Amino acid sequence: MNVEQIYTGCLAQGAYYIESAGEAVIIDPLRETGPYLKKLAETGARLKYIFETHFHADFVSGHLDLARETGAQIVYGPLADPDYAIYSAADGEALRVGELTFVVLHTPGHTMESSTFLLRDASGKDYALFTGDTLFLGDVGRPDLAIKQGEVTKEDLAGYLFNSLRGKIMPLADDVLVYPAHGAGSACGKNLSKETFGRLGDQKRTNYALRADMTREEFVREVTAGLTPPPQYFAKNAQMNKGGYDRFDEVLGRGNRALTADKFEQLAESEDALILDVRDRADFAAGFIPNSIFIGIDGQFAPWVGALIVDIKQPILIVAPAGREEEVVTRLSRVGYDTTLGYLDGGIAAWRAAGREVDTIETISATEFATRVERGGVDHILDTRKPTEFLSEHLEAGENFPLDYINGSRMQELDREETYYLHCGSGYRSLIAASILQARGYRHLVNVEGGWSAIKDTDLPKTAYTCPTKIDQQAVDRAVIAVL
């Protein structure tokens, strides 16, 4: 028996490859099939099943392309009704893979079709549980992504989740391994662990949602408390996973095209394309194509694309580090942004060589920022971190302006004639925010490189800080409402 977790840090997502006696199953694969096909070729195994734990909202699964390329069956549990052929497994049904058995456990709550897959070894012993978004390490799946107006509420889904956990998962032995679909960094839960797998017994002892003495009412209240609005692309990705999508090789063929500066500019105008610059943030700040948006490939790239580019069919042109263009197209497709038109051949150097205009964003060190604050020359500070980060510690003069909600109405409250200093935790998110604001006509922007971690190391007096001793959930809820 071979059980391998294939973890993708940018999405905090775990796919799984399990092989036994020449047969294999893949659980929750990512969009591109190449890594899975390579693994199958190396082991010589035949892919028998592709298990989908639910209609994923935070990424586009590779199940359709993988099924076409291998002939494997796509398997969902009860209540899934996609627009393509699947094997709909019954609750409790056993499926054989080599010498192994997978038992399908219908565990509604995160979504109504959510199922987990219990792996039994060749001797019939319960070995591992692939929980999808039903159970994470440290948390459970959020119950607000599959609500239907007038039909099912987040409280209803939380109640189903309570029953699923107590009736299907918690009765299993403590030594069963838990392999979830996500770890820390995913927006599919509130308190996910940095660990990517663990023992069920540990979760029974430490996971707040699995307390043995917890009532249904307490569970519903705690699981639904403090849920921020999900990223706008979640519903769109879920629909793609349910309804189908273009083949990945077609998406890659369209997007991985080298364009001259002339052709790049022509497409930007004729297709109303968004120019997405994914280079290092220092390189971007020093010179970029006017009106382009920065989202660095070496940060939480795909989730920020999904959160900030509202139209999932938006035509996109890429400015990327040399040799990483295909990677960018691939990572965009993982969250459903399939309308990439190509990339600037030769990058920003080619743009400059063609005599085109270049824009910049002023970037200063945390030390210089502190000096300007002490001199009284800083009137507006935009802290682009999440409300919870802001509440934990921030500058007294700072205003919370979370990047997550930058496309909301609060942008209109800013004065285009005023100068705004932006910071986040490190400088990544604040530069994204600055690029968006500058593209919308805000020209007096200063990004603080190093962000909050660097600001705290300056000589700013502690009286400039607000640091509450306790953050209660009501404070978080009020902060979220305030920035929406």
UniProtKB/TrEMBL annotation:
Gene3D superfamilies: Rhodanese-like domain, Ribonuclease Z/Hydroxyacylglutathione hydrolase-like
Annotated ranges, domain Rhodanese: 269-360, 375-464
Molecular function GO labels: hydrolase activity; metal ion binding; sulfur dioxygenase activity
Listed CDD domains: POD-like_MBL-fold, RHOD
Key words, A-Z: Hydrolase, Metal-binding
Domain of life: Bacteria
A Pfam family hit: Lactamase_B
GO terms (BP aspect): glutathione metabolic process; hydrogen sulfide metabolic process
InterPro entries on file: Metallo-B-lactamas (IPR001279), Mito_Persulfide_Diox (IPR051682), POD-like_MBL-fold (IPR044528), Rhodanese-like_dom (IPR001763), Rhodanese-like_dom_sf (IPR036873), RibonucZ/Hydroxyglut_hydro (IPR036866)
Name of the protein this chain belongs to: Glyoxylase-like metal-dependent hydrolase (Beta-lactamase superfamily II)
Species this chain originates from: Neolewinella xylanilytica
